[in-house]
Amino acid sequence: MANIEDIKKELEKVKYPGFEKSIMDFGFVKDVQLEGNIASIVLDITSTAQEVEEQLRKDIHACINAIGLEVKLGFNKPQAPKQNSNSVSGKNIAPQIKKIVMVSSGKGGVGKSTTTVNLAVAASMQGKKVGILDADIYGPNIPRMMGLQGKEVEVIGEKARPLNAYGVDVMSMGVLMDEGQAVIWRGAMIMKAIQQLLRDILWEELDILFIDMPPGTGDAQLTLAQSVPVAAGINVTTPQHVALDDSRRSLDMFQKLHIPVAGIVENMSGFICPSCETESDIFGMGTCEDLADQYNTQVLGNLPIEPAIREGGDGGKPITYFNPESISAKRYMEAASKVIAFLDNVDDDRTNADIQPTTPPGVSACSTTAASASSAQQTQQSSGGSCGTGCGCH
Ligand SMILES: Nc1ncnc2c1ncn2[C@@H]1O[C@H](COP(=O)(O)OP(=O)(O)OP(=O)(O)O)[C@@H](O)[C@H]1O
To answer: May I ask which residue range the UniProt record assigns to the signal sequence (predicted)?
Structure first.
């Protein structure tokens, strides 16, 4: 006869809909009891969506029945939010912003924030009125990268005015939270935070708002797509094949959310030696071309690993603004021009209902299942010359 441990083992096989992690790993299973052959299980879940509950019921029944037990299931769920999804209500909560661009990556640490900052600065240098919303609530580092760390936000009534650096308006959870404060966010809180960052911030009329998303494909992406019409998505990745697999998830998510894909930024693509400026291949270069073809999009730019890019990020002095003659700054400028050209072709008057999904609030239109696209071919590039600094050039 199965015991409680057997039940828990079975529950480890049940994945939370739209995610790779199990309900046990998420800590959603609050109570497991066994009386006779009836397993009583209580779950705390973050989604209000009926579909999520139904899927879980189905999966849990299947695996618990398989070990010869009946199931009694209880769910604790948050109240459904009053605010309907944008696509359902047709409401745009930030109508003064002409074009919203979602910058995403399949995983953390690939240079998404660095790319957001430099693209935004580059677009501003090309005459656009630009803002950055740092929605990476788990690691908001845009304030540091824009030299705004420790700056006080001006509060007017119940709203806050964005900060400004290098001609770009900026708002971030990092400005609103104490430094180093750890944040553990669950679905409903993320939804609220993102909506507040759009609605309760006094954004001026902007041509483009770049939004630096948390890595991955989750509640934040869905909430954003349901709250405002997202005109374009940009995927940032590094060229290694493992990173490209994660990237596919991100690109699949754009497709599922009906977000037009402006392109892919291949970051840390080769290394530029600070001494001789030779570009050499470290993690691979040019691997995103195939990926872009598969998703019918373009590579916006190949940004090398350049110490000056990191120093610009750490020191709050973006390379595009402070060293516009560098190879990287020129590539960011070119990438920004491609984004602007892409946005020119996305209709200003498109409403969210035209481009974003019509799933009810809280229902994940995102899937973490990677497309079964074939692997991109790595293009090896050799570099000439030798500088003798051990940078890898030969
Ligand atoms: N092309 C580059 N050359 C050198 N350093 C880089 C480059 N791109 C990013 N970095 C550095 O890599 C680190 C991670 O970059 P960044 O914070 O932009 O990544 P991220 O994808 O936003 O990470 P997270 O998901 O954790 O927020 C930073 O220290 C940044 O300065």
So the answer is: none
* Parts of the chain belonging to CATH 3.30.300.130: 4-76
Cα 113 to middle of ligand 1, angstroms: 7
For the ranges 8-17, 134-143, 202-211, the lowest mean pLDDT is seen at: 134-143
Residue 128 has pLDDT above 80, yes or no: yes
- The four Cα atoms 288, 291, 293, 296 give a dihedral, to 10 degrees, of -120
How much is the pLDDT for 378? 30
CA of 246 to the centre of ligand 1 (A): 16
Ligand 1 atom closest to 328 (CA): 1
The yes or no reply on domain 86-355 and CATH 3.40.50.2300 is no
Give the helix/strand (H/E) hosting 6.
helix 4-11
Which residues of the chain does CATH 3.40.50.300 include? 86-355
What pLDDT, on the 0 to 100 scale, is given for residue 158? Answer: 78
Q: Are 206 and 96 in contact (CB under 8 A)?
A: yes
Pocket test for ligand 1, best of 105, 112, 114 (most atoms within 8 A of CB): 114
% of the chain exceeding 90 in pLDDT: 44
Residue of minimum CA distance from atom 6 in ligand 1: 310
If you classify domain 4-76 with CATH, what class do you get? alpha beta
Show contacts of 351-355: CB within 8 Å, 24+ apart. 351/90, 351/92, 351/229, 352/86, 352/87, 352/90, 352/91, 352/92, 352/225, 352/226, 352/228, 352/229, 353/86, 353/87, 353/90, 354/229, 355/229, 355/230, 355/231, 355/258, 355/259, 355/260
Residue 111 in marked binding region: yes
Q: Of 102, 104, 113, which is best to mutate to test ligand 1, by the most ligand atoms within 8 angstroms of its C-beta? A: 113
pLDDT confidence of residue 279: 77
Q: Which two tokens stand for residue 44?
A: 């705390």
Q: How far is the CA of 175 from the centre of ligand 1 (A)?
A: 19
More confident residue, 105 or 159: 105
- Give the residue carrying structure tokens 């009534």: 157
DSSP state of 15: B
372 Cβ neighbours under 8 A, 6+ residues apart: none
Q: What is the pLDDT of residue 393?
A: 33
CA dihedral 13, 14, 17, 18 (to 10 degrees): -10
